[in-house]
Amino acid sequence: GAINNAAGNLDGTSGISNISGTLTNQGDIFNGRDEHGLVYENAVFNNLVNAEIYNQSFINNQGQMANHGHIYNQESSVISNWEKFDNKSAARVRNWGTFTNHEGATLINNGVIDNLDGGNVVGQFVNHGHLSGTGIILGDVTDHGHIKPGNSAGVKTIHGNYFKVDGSHEI
């Protein structure tokens, strides 16, 4: 089915599972405590402009996720992308936890992935899949996958250390 959080608050204290449906957020989602989190299997999740997600647990994307707004991945929290995550041009992922793009997954970053707090690296971003887009990554990147900077001619801006462990880099 479909869930539309139209400018309200959706409190997922006990977790939110969206399997083969559509979840559209136009308000605020407060995601989980303890072991609970957002799970999307074969689903579509749209976080629209001015919408916010406060993740205190985990986001496990196994579908299609489009972020037009803001995601706050709190300390010790996890974002795992297993399929497709599209961070749009005005979007921001504030990552104080761990953000992993897994093998076989696609992350298109045209916005900002911010692993910093007051100029210090606090979040961990690890790529095992395909990373593309013209966006900015603030903080360190550990890359085991395939990175394809920007559009023709491609640019990928990383304000931090880039650790290429294995995989490929397409220029």
Spans of at least 5 consecutive residues whose pLDDT stays below 50 are none
**Estimated helix fraction:** under 10%
Morphology: globular
Helix segment tally: 0
Q: Which band does the percent of strand residues land in?
A: over 45%
Question: Sheet bearing the most strands, described?
Answer: 15 strands, parallel
Rg (CA only): 15 Å
Distance between the termini: 41 Å
- Structural class assignment: mainly beta
**Oligomerization state of this entry?**
single chain
What does this structure look like?
The protein is mainly β and 171 residues long. The protein is 0% helix and 60% strand. It is built from no helices and 25 strands. It has a 15-stranded parallel β-sheet that branches. Strand 16 (116-117) and strand 17 (120-121) form a beta hairpin. The relative contact order is 0.12. The model has no long low-confidence stretch (mean pLDDT 88).
Please specify the SSE layout and strand pairing:
Layout: E1 2-5, E2 9-12, E3 16-19, E4 22-25, E5 28-31, E6 37-47, E7 52-55, E8 58-67, E9 70-73, E10 78-81, E11 84-87, E12 92-95, E13 98-101, E14 106-109, E15 112-114, E16 116-117, E17 120-121, E18 124-127, E19 130-133, E20 136-138, E21 141-143, E22 146-149, E23 157-159, E24 162-164, E25 168-169
Parallel strand pairs: 1-4, 2-5, 3-6, 4-6, 5-7, 6-8, 7-9, 8-10, 8-11, 9-12, 10-13, 11-14, 12-15, 13-18, 14-19, 15-20, 18-21, 19-22, 20-23, 21-24, 22-25
Antiparallel strand pairs: 16-17
